[in-house]
Amino acid sequence: MAKDKETKETVEETTNAATEEQVVDTAENSDSEVDNDAELEEEVEELTAEEKLQVELAEAKDKYLRLYSEFENFRRRNAKERIELVKTASADLMTDLLPTIDDFERANQANEKQDDVDSLKEGFSLIHNKIYKTLEGKGLKVMETKKGTDFDADLHEAVTQFPVEEKKLKGKIIDTVEKGYYLGDKVIRFAKVVIGS
Description:
One of its GO terms (molecular function) is protein homodimerization activity. It is found in: Cytoplasm. InterPro entries: GrpE (IPR000740), GrpE_CC (IPR013805), GrpE_head (IPR009012). The protein is of the alpha+beta class. The protein has helices at about 1-90, 90-115, 115-135, and strands at about 140, 155-160, 175-180, 180-185, 185-190, 190-195. Helix content is about 65%, strand content about 15%. A hairpin with a 2-residue loop joins strand 4 (about 180-185) and strand 5 (about 185-190). It is elongated and about 115 Å long.
């Protein structure tokens, strides 16, 4: 019994010593683990900052690509619409001129049987007024180029110069060869004029 007691005490001492060693080892291990955890956290933070930058860069690239493709689509759509507009821009005018063309056809048919010159003149005058009113309704205006007005290179095209006896007509318009026209405020055809020299 005394031997059993001694054996128990020896086992207990050995167990206690082993436990103390484990506690010391565990403490040392936990200190080293704490150091390792701190290092890992720093690495994770560094990677996280790097990863954040990579994520932001990827998002910026994605946004750029989306905006670029959206702009390209807009540009293509706009070009297509412009081409379509150019093709159909004159459709309004053509539709408005069709009745005048019909009047010309009727006048041509009537002229074959007509001997009265005055009625022919009146018919063509009516058609001329109708076509002019139609074009005027679309914004067409005649450029005024009266005899004696100043020559303006922005509005007029000098066809020739002609010597004049009156000094006040030198450098001025003395004749209009071809009328000029505005569409709105824009010159669409310059007036061809003769200038006095």
